[in-house]
Specification:
single chain; alpha/beta; Ribosomal Protein L4, Chain: A; 7 helices; 7 strands; 33% helix; elongated
C-alpha cells in the first residue's frame, strides 16, 4: 500500500511513500471496529441517571380514600406510578456502562482503522516538521497547501512534538498525538490522518516480529 507524501512546506512529492506491510496489509475488520468503538463510547457514559423508587420517595403512607363506596378507582397510595409526582416504573438507576476491551483486540482495531483510512486515500505522509516556536499560521499554511484545511485532521507524530501541539491547538478540528497514543476511535473520527514520516518504525518492527522474538524481547 502507498500513500501521498508531502514536504514540510505542504508541497506534494513526485512519488508516493510505501507503507510498511506489517501495519498496512489492507485488512479492515469491521466487526472488531464496531466492538471497540461501542466499548469506547460506552466507557464515556457517566451512568448517573436516577429515578425515584418507593424507597426514595416521601409520603404516600395513607390510603387516599376508602376502598369502596366512592365510585372512584381504588388507590392505595398517592405515590403510585399512575399519580403525578409518584414513582417511575422500571426507571433507570445509576450503573456502570464500562466495557473491557482486550489489548490484542484493541491493537487489531487500530490496525483496521489505519487500513481503512489508507484505502480511502485519507492517510497522508509528511516530512518531519521542525518549528522554531509555536506558529499557528505555519500550520494553517501547511493544511492549505495539502488541501485539507477546514477538515478534521489528526497529526500522528514521531514522538512528542510539543511545539506542533501548541501551534495546532487553536485550530478547530485539528489534533496532534504521538504515534501509538491514538485509539481506533480517534483514527476514525478524523477525516484525514497526517503521519510524520518514520513515526511507525517502532510499531512496524514490533508487528513484524515473531511470537518467539517478541517474548524474548519482553524477557530481556
Amino acid at each position: 500500500m502507498k500513500a501521498k507524501a508531502y514536504t514540510a512546506d505542504g508541497e506534494e512529492r513526485s512519488r508516493p511513500v510505501e507503507l510498511p506491510e506489517a501495519l498496512f496489509d489492507g485488512t479492515v475488520n469491521e466487526g472488531v471496529l464496531h466492538q471497540v468503538i461501542t466499548a469506547r463510547r460506552a466507557n464515556q457514559r457517566q451512568g448517573n441517571a436516577s429515578t425515584r423508587t418507593y424507597a426514595t420517595v416521601a409520603g404516600g403512607g395513607r390510603k387516599p380514600w376508602r376502598q369502596k363506596g366512592t365510585g372512584r378507582a381504588r388507590q392505595g397510595t398517592i405515590r403510585s406510578p399512575l399519580w403525578r409526582g409518584g414513582v417511575v416504573t422500571f426507571g433507570p438507576q445509576p450503573r456502570d456502562y464500562g466495557k473491557r476491551v482486550p489489548k490484542k483486540l484493541n491493537r487489531l482495531a487500530i490496525q483496521s482503522a489505519l487500513n481503512a483510512r489508507a484505502l480511502e486515500g485519507h492517510l497522508l505522509v509528511m516530512a518531519p516538521l521542525e518549528l522554531d516556536g509555536p506558529r499557528t499560521r505555519t500550520v494553517m499554511g501547511l493544511l492549505e497547501g495539502m488541501g485539507i484545511d477546514g477538515r478534521k485532521v489528526l497529526f500522528l507524530t514521531d514522538g512528542l512534538k510539543r511545539i506542533l501541539y501548541l501551534s495546532a491547538r487553536n485550530i478547530p478540528g485539528v489534533e496532534v498525538k504521538p504515534w501509538g497514543e491514538a485509539s481506533a476511535y480517534d483514527l476514525l473520527r478524523a477525516d484525514v490522518l497526517v503521519v510524520e514520516e518514520g513515526a511507525w518504525e517502532g510499531a512496524a518492527n514490533e508487528a513484524g516480529a515473531t511470537p518467539d522474538e517478541a517474548s524474548s524481547e519482553e524477557e530481556s
